[in-house]
Amino acid sequence: MLIDKNMKRGIFVFLILRTLQNCSRFSKRGLKERNLAVLEAANFAKLFIQTSLLIFFVLIFSQNSLALGISPAIVEIDFAPNAEHEFNFYVGGDDPERIIDIDVGGDLAEYAVLSTKEIKGSGTFIVKLKFPKEVKKPGINRLSVGASERPLEESFLGTKAEIRATIIVRVPYPGRYAEVELTTPDGNVKTPIDISLKIYNRGKETLFIKSEVFFFDEQGKSAHYIGFPSITLESGKDKTFRNSLNTTVFKPGDYLARAVVDYGEKVNVESRFRIGYLYVNITNFTNELPKRGIQKFFVNIESKWNGKIEPIYADINVYNETKNLSFRTPSIGLEAWGSATLEGFLDTEPLNGDYDVNIVLNYLGEQSFASGKLRIYETGISFKFIIILAAVIMICVLLVIFIIFRKLRKKRRKKE
Length: 416
Prior knowledge:
The chain is an alpha+beta fold. The chain has helices spanning 2-31, 36-60, 383-415, and strands at 68-71, 74-78, 84-93, 99-106, 112-114, 118-120, 122-130, 139-149, 162-171, 178-183, 187-188, 193-201, 207-216, 222-233, 238-245, 253-262, 266-276, 280-285, 288-290, 294-303, 309-319, 324-328, 332-334, 339-347, 353-363, 366-377.
């Protein structure tokens, strides 16, 4: 019975959306020639109604709350012949009476045994994993542990929540094989950057390893070199090398680090990083505004510094031969390498035509500068008219919704 009701509601929502679409087409044909601002108001009204209907739609179909969690989400182990492991998992839902089915799948599922295959509401279970003497597939094997709520008879279209955890088993490759991770975080000029090179022996043989890292600038020219001591690494083991990169002789910009690991076979791994300096760039700003009272003036900024900058604000001067106005934006904070928009307010009522603009950006005792033009233009339609038009459109749409709803209710009563 619940399915029938929800399907009727879905048809109801579909009819409303189609009505909105037709209204929008009509509005665009009638308004496009008059003024772009009116068209934008109509589009805003349409977006507002569609968003409201979407929320309404979600509320209708979310009568049966679906929430399910499993922990831990990921477990990682190395393969060892004939080894046995036990993993404890917790699974929980939001309904204490709901039955949760447990299953395993994926790689190595035939070697896994569950302590239970169902749990009521929430609880713990154990996955026992007994490895064979060998596994044919080398590398990463993924054993999937799943939990899913049994659908209720009255649920819409048999919906249910489902979630899966993963047990990652690393099986050694035959012969020699290494995996390499190179970490090069961003930094600033004259500040050391910590470099990390981690090597995993994923093969069955012991490795004799020589490692080095080369650094290149944006033009591909060699900028620096770091060498590490040669080592012997047994199967299943890993080794992490660390060093500090002296950036005193580096210029700000983008760099590439390339690690070369030689164990009889060469592995190249690259990592890009940035070296910053205390500078905030003005990337763009408002270049035209309507002559309509107090308007927002935007200044887009971008940090070149690997660290937070706070406070940042802009002093803006708008002028021509007869007018000279200045204002300041509120201050903000900017995260490392972040971008943001400063917002100031300019009274456009006494202005008309073209003006010069000078912007001074202030931050941590430093300044950045930008200049350009600003045009103040007359508008043929008032903001008040746009608001009234948007309200009228919304009222019309709500009236259509009300009429459709009444018709559906009458049909339903006749059937009953």
